[in-house]
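Hey, why these numbers?
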Amino acid sequence: MLTPQITIYAEPHILWMLPYTRQELCEHLKLMLSLTHPEGVLELSILDDNAMEELNNTAMLCRGPTNILSFPDSDISKMQKNSLGWMAFCAPALHRECLLYGQDRQEHTLRLLAHGLAHLLGYDHSSEMDDLTERLTQKSLTL
């Protein structure tokens, strides 16, 4: 049986903004995948505001950075069996949202990752997606 495979790309200058190490992020994502797509493969890029703003503008035709974007039709998903695609996560957006809204950094990180994963699994914004996001977040918080 295959296990979930996670690849994380991040510049060292941005990782300090996250409440988890690269290895811890992998473990959380593996747990989420084991509950939803046990043989899944995905890539995660941790971006700064400039890179996320450029990606958001190019891919979504939206201005400014956003917290997370999901791309099920990435290059990896076309080349690798069981690939769900690619997620881009903006560390400064996470940092801002936690400061602005008083959110716990660990929980908000996991919620954003679960939300992005739900998009890769084919969910669109709905109560069903919200339920899955919350279930994955809460389960991952137990790690």
Observations:
- The mean pLDDT is 93.
